[in-house]
Amino acid sequence: MNGPTIHRTSPQIAQPATISSTMLDVIIALVPALAMAVFLFGVRVLALTAVSVGTCVLAEYGYRRLRGQSNTIGDLSACVTGLLLAMSLPVTAPYWAPEGYEPSFVVSVDIAARSLFFPAAEAYFPRIGLAIDHHPSFEGFGAAQCVDSGRAACGEIVYEICRELGEVTAEVALPLYAAVATDTGCFVYANTTANTHMVAAALLATGIDYFSVNKRHFRTKTRARIALEADILSHLEFFHEGRGVFLAVPIALMERVGATENDAEDLSALATVVEGVDCGALLRELEPGQWKLSLRTGANGRVNATKVCRLLGGGGQGAGGKSRQLFHEMYTSRSILHTV
Ligand SMILES: [Mn+2]
Q: Is the pTM of this model over 0.70?
């Protein structure tokens, strides 16, 4: 142990890696998978790949040119993008999307009223071929209907349709389980039946990872959601000797905690966790000065949310469910609720 100890970084095998050499490696690595796709699905794979790669290269070339920037198609990244896109498409994918795409058949599921359609889906409303629903207040649209208000979840109805069509695989069972679990608040709403549990049992028997679904939907909250709940709960107001509770979600609160639409889902459920509450009313400000009322009723059935909302002129989801109604002012609607 004579002399000084020399510390060095370990000898690295260096190689001049450029974007184009890395991209070329990726392309070479994808060739066997592409060859297998041609073997399995035929030569149309090659045509689809050519269209996809060609479009990507042209788009990059054109865009850079338009912006007066250097030509970068030589780095092969556009080729890789085109190749990956082609490989993730079904072999039957059209070479271009037809303008004004028209679906051949439209199915609506669990959308009780026309007013509940998303604006983007509104165009399909007059063309609904099949409506699947379980709301007592279902408006009766669609050329054909598959409606059973005795079902706690639309997923129960869809499960039976799937069973008629063939074996319900784990791949089909997982989204169906998510549908049944979320529609019943994880099997706790008052409309949950023995059949709901039997459908869930059949879905679990396919070996799905139901724990992750439940953890994701019922045991995980975003930080914005926690901040929303903290504020709402610190401002809740009781009426009718504590049998009713008012929750309010002004736009200002949503903005302050940075909450999105997803963070605000099903907030009315907060109302009925308070002991002794028969009816919870959540007022949510959608646009400045315009409030949506959601009613949530307790398990004792003293208040029927559907009936209340019919009185107020809105849609509903039956006892134990929630109902919606647009109000133009928050405080005058309080007097309406005192009559509940
Ligand atoms: Mn539903």
A: no
